[in-house]
Design brief:
It is found in: Cell membrane. The structure is a single chain. With about 325 residues, the protein is mainly alpha-helical. The protein is about 70% helix and about 0% strand. The protein has helices at about 1-15, 20-30, 45-80, 90-105, 115-135, 145-165, 170-180, 195-210, 210-220, 220-225, 230-255, 260-270, 275-300, 310-325. The protein is globular and about 65 Å long.
């Protein structure tokens, strides 16, 4: 937690305008009820606006998104029992991309105002989930393999739909905005955007922690988990719903940010082992810290221009993925330490 607080503080101070850490927390404490009168205001209005209205919500959103992606990574790797699984393997992000593209390029869901992008992305996620569920149950079966195959198929189809929408877009500026969003971005962060993602991440993390014994059992296989009293069919459905909900909400607010859900669970398992009672909270913490610094790098690397944060995570995640494949001593759950 200390590393997280330090990361938040330093990330807020970094930018075109250098601000002292004391000023950052002075402004933050000034907004806390009953404490505001105890803080001496030694900052300018411009500093207050930069810190409180722009940088603070962005850095906190990065922490929430990073934590959520890491938690959903743990969940989906347990769901499919595959150490190389990523939160986007079920194709949910492709559905979100279709909804968001329609909003940006054609003004869909404009009745929701500033929340139109989030609503469009989330509805697209729901559409992909329904299609994946329906396909995986054809023939009366609902195995993990069929679920993955359905996810890959739906993801390919919806990615094609997104490309078709972009190709038929009426304006060039809209295309640029869509491509930037598809690579992930936290540039539009506002305080009001934090509430729903934060609640969803906290609730899903609490539910998974309450089921940590079942998660541990699933690592040994469904047959072994069944002998230990786990209703594998119902539990797999629970994991799928949590995975879809977390991914949909996060993609709706930040765009497609890959590899965080792949990297963080692996790193954490090497550090603390495979017990989900420790893996889940530590993954959330490490994911929050990682994405805070990834976003800071995206902001500062080519300032005043800004890189999509998905580029930074891909540059980190790609080599990590290759290393993971080449490391023959690694086994799922951290057993290769």
């Amino acid at each position: 937690m200390i590393v997280l607080l330090v990361s938040i503080t330093l990330a807020i101070t970094l930018g075109s305008v250098d601000i002292h850490p004391r000023t950052v927390w002075g402004i933050a404490l000034n907004h806390v009820p009953f404490l505001g009168g105890c803080v001496t205001e030694d900052w300018t209005r411009a500093q207050h606006s930069i810190i409180w209205d722009i940088r603070f919500p962005r850095v906190l959103l990065a922490a929430v998104v990073g934590a959520g992606l890491s938690v959903v990574g743990v969940a989906i790797q347990s769901l499919v029992r595959n150490s190389l699984a990523d939160p986007y393997i079920l194709g949910v992000s492709s559905g979100a991309s279709v909804g968001a593209t329609l909003v940006i390029l054609f003004g869909a869901f404009s009745m929701y105002g500033q929340y139109a992008l989030s609503v469009g992305a989330f509805l697209g996620s729901l559409l992909s989930i329904v299609l994946i569920f329906s396909l995986s149950r054809i023939g009366g079966q609902n195995s993990t393999v069929r679920l993955l195959m359905a996810g890959i198929a739906i993801s390919a189809i919806l990615s094609g739909v997104t490309s078709l929408i972009i190709f038929s877009a009426p304006n060039e500026h809209g295309i640029r905005s869509v491509l930037f969003w598809l690579s992930g971005s936290l540039a539009g962060a506002k305080w009001e955007y934090l509430t729903i993602p934060s609640l969803v991440v906290l609730v899903c993390l609490a539910v998974l922690l309450a089921q940590y014994r079942s998660l541990n059992s699933m690592l040994m296989g469904e047959e072994s988990a069944s002998t230990l009293g786990v209703n594998t069919v119902q539990f797999r459905k629970l994991l799928l719903v949590i995975t879809a909900l977390l991914t949909g909400v996060i993609v709706a607010i930040s765009g497609s940010i890959g590899f965080v859900g792949l990297m963080m669970p692996h790193i954490v398992r090497v550090i603390v082992g495979s017990d989900h009672r420790r893996v889940l909270p530590v993954s959330a913490l490490l994911g929050a810290i990682f994405l805070i610094w990834a976003d800071a790098l995206a902001r500062l690397s080519f300032a005043p221009e800004e890189l999509p944060i998905g580029i930074i995570t891909a540059l980190c995640g790609g080599p990590f993925f290759i290393w993971l494949m080449l490391r023959s001593s690694y086994s799922f759950g951290g057993g290769g330490r």
